[in-house]
């Protein structure tokens, strides 16, 4: 979707004839009102995909293992909680800071776990490259947050 068509930038004409951002229509609603429809849509779509797969497998004579559905369902529930916190954070901090932290934060946590807990990055050259990349990402986040304030 182009920036000109995204809800944050799109304009519409109201009854008085003036242009205003569409997002101004929803000032009285909670930011988390979007969570249930989003999660329900994902649940319905993924259920339809699984049912289609199971039907094709049944017609083809394949065995369909149902045990992997439980961990996938649990991870979807965890995702929904994280999505709720993400939407709340973005609405509280603003789009430029909130989305930057929501997009970069998990990557930083995962990469720090990779280096210090799991020791996946252990060679000197890899650690130097990681440190440079981490520093550039930190500079980018600081630039974005200072530009928005």
TrEMBL record:
<dbReference type="InterPro" id="IPR037185">
    <property type="entry name" value="EmrE-like"/>
</dbReference>
<feature type="transmembrane region" description="Helical">
    <location>
        <begin position="40"/>
        <end position="60"/>
    </location>
</feature>
<feature type="transmembrane region" description="Helical">
    <location>
        <begin position="72"/>
        <end position="91"/>
    </location>
</feature>
<keyword id="KW-0472">Membrane</keyword>
<feature type="transmembrane region" description="Helical">
    <location>
        <begin position="127"/>
        <end position="147"/>
    </location>
</feature>
<keyword id="KW-0812">Transmembrane</keyword>
<keyword id="KW-1133">Transmembrane helix</keyword>
<feature type="region of interest" description="Disordered">
    <location>
        <begin position="1"/>
        <end position="21"/>
    </location>
</feature>
<feature type="compositionally biased region" description="Basic and acidic residues">
    <location>
        <begin position="9"/>
        <end position="21"/>
    </location>
</feature>
<dbReference type="Pfam" id="PF07857">
    <property type="entry name" value="TMEM144"/>
</dbReference>
<dbReference type="InterPro" id="IPR012435">
    <property type="entry name" value="TMEM144"/>
</dbReference>
<comment type="similarity">
    <text>Belongs to the TMEM144 family.</text>
</comment>
<dbReference type="InterPro" id="IPR010651">
    <property type="entry name" value="Sugar_transport"/>
</dbReference>
<protein>
    <recommendedName>
        <fullName>EamA domain-containing protein</fullName>
    </recommendedName>
</protein>
<feature type="transmembrane region" description="Helical">
    <location>
        <begin position="97"/>
        <end position="118"/>
    </location>
</feature>
